[in-house]
Amino acid sequence: MFLRRFAIRLFVAAILVLFLPLVSYSSSVKNNIRDIRFSSNGRFTRIVVECDGKIDYKQNLLKFPDRLYFDLHYTAPASFSNKSLAVNDSAVKAIRISRYNHSTTRIVLRLLSYDDYNVYTLEKPDRLVIDINYGNRNEKFVPRKRIIVVDAGHGGRDPGA
Questions:
Q1: What are phi and psi of 113, to 5 degrees?
Q2: Where are the alpha helices (DSSP H) in 1-159?
Q3: pTM for the model
Q4: How far from 82 is each of 79, 85, 101, 110, CA to CA, in Å?
Q5: What is the DSSP secondary structure assignment for residue 66, as one 8-state letter?
Q6: How do strand 75-76 and strand 31-40 relate by DSSP bridges?
Q7: CATH number of 85's domain
Q8: Does residue 45 lie within any of the structural domains?
Q9: Among 21, 42, 65, 71, which residue's Cβ finds the most Cβ atoms within 10 Å?
Q10: Residue 64 belongs to some domain of the structure
Q11: What is the pLDDT of residues 25-37, one digit of tens each?
């Protein structure tokens, strides 16, 4: 009797130990990446990461080689796990998506050249938008010719002004 009770408790404990990480994983992930898209226009590259819910992220810029990464907290990569997307434009060579830990997805941008970058979030649908600026800042500014217009007004008299 005692041996049977001990065996049942041991079996239940083993089941709990095996399935507890799955329960904690599913409760820690609140978001899934639905889509990643990018476009370039000659001055900047825009990368849009679309998710199921509100995006909580941390970013950092690394050197040698230049990389910009984003840790999306409480987010699963869904079908993008361990995937690399080739961009191959003037600013970004590739985008890599992978699981960083049990509740965080890391997106790494391999940069070729950039002047600066801008990051912001949008809602409905929830998106993380990354603009990598690489336009030529050394272009010479040529001011346009000013035109001065004289309005005669009310014959030289304006009692209201």
A1: -155, 150
A2: 2-28
A3: 0.66
A4: 9, 10, 13, 15
A5: T
A6: parallel
A7: 2.60.40.3500
A8: yes
A9: 71
A10: yes
A11: 445 678 889 999 9
